[in-house]
Amino acid sequence: MIALIVCLLLFALIIVVILIDIVPIFKDWLSRIHIGRFQDKQLWSRSITNVGIQWLNHTPQIKVTDNTRLVAIDMLKGNYSKNSIQHWQEASLLMGLAEYVKRSGDQEVKREIEKFLASKFDRDGEWVEKPEQVDAAILAYAVMKLDFINTDHYKKALETTWELIRDHLGTDGTVAYRKFMPNYRYVDTIGFICPFLVCYGLRYRQEACVDLAVKQILSYEKHGMLEGHHIPSHAYQIDNKLPLGLYGWGRGLGWFAIGLVDAWNELPAGHKAKKTLENSVRKFAVAAMAFQQADGNWSWTVTRQECRADSSTTATLGWFMQQASRIEDISADCLESAERAVRYLMKATRRNGAVDFSQGDTKDIGVYSMLFNILPFTQGFCIRLMNSIHVGP
């Protein structure tokens, strides 16, 4: 009898493990039936926004691993997802919905955002769970972009974020991606910290924050770009200035793009660094447009047409191009580029409004995911892009 019970329990466990592997694969297959049939921009914008609203307080967990078999083991080991990855997923959704609320005044979405804030910050405006990685700065920046709340209430959390960034300062005066890798500078960090630093620095009159953001960007331009093409490597080593990882990693272009353009957007017209960053925006826009594919996408490796299209790269660079179109001499080209990006993203959207085919989380320098699926980060930037061009619900 005991042996029978053990066998049944073992059988049940095997079935559960198999289902954990099979169900997501089946759901993806089912969700991709009739993918890419959106033709109307307003309908598409409403659909992607509705998904973003659903995901804000129930954000899908993004896998750290590429494993699709025995996923339950990764879950038990704690290798399935990490908070640092979730921070930039949530930040993107929040930024996208902030743009939507700014235009629509949707009270229901405001309540969802307030619910989200209550889950992340305590009554004193401090983080409920203090972050340990600088990835959290993009979420802090997203909070500062909410114009219907008193963001000063979250000043303690913002100060904590600034202290966290300072704690990652290296010997060269720029910010490390991780404290245990002090000699590397990642392109991701541009997107994580620079918009926050400028926004926080201007709001609370700490010019050192703004100076650090500008230095982070200009240092990367000097040491982390491919000469003659102006696309970033994944990282560089601060001692010998050697590039690390891939030149032309798509989401790396996206991280540089959003960090640069949002930092530039935050600076007032008369600021000493405004023109400097505008020149950087212009140069990078021209460089990135050269690698856009005929159907409007950017590949996960932008230098190779044979590589898979990456929706996360396309969404972030689409947002960048829309913002860069404010520069008169490149305006027409940037608007056309953004329009082509939108057309591609519509084709990559499931019938329920979830944008598909974004590259999964990167494992290490030069070690890139070969899974392409939904990504809240992509969803948020699609929402942000559509509301910035005044097409939507």
From TrEMBL:
Gene3D superfamilies xref list: 1.50.10.10
Keywords from the UniProt entry: Hydrolase
InterPro entries recorded: 6-hairpin_glycosidase_sf, 6hp_glycosidase-like_sf, Glyco_hydro_88, PolySaccharide_Degr_Enz
Name of the protein this chain belongs to: Glycosyl Hydrolase Family 88
Signal peptide: none
Species the sequence originates in: Paenibacillus konkukensis
UniProt GO molecular function: hydrolase activity
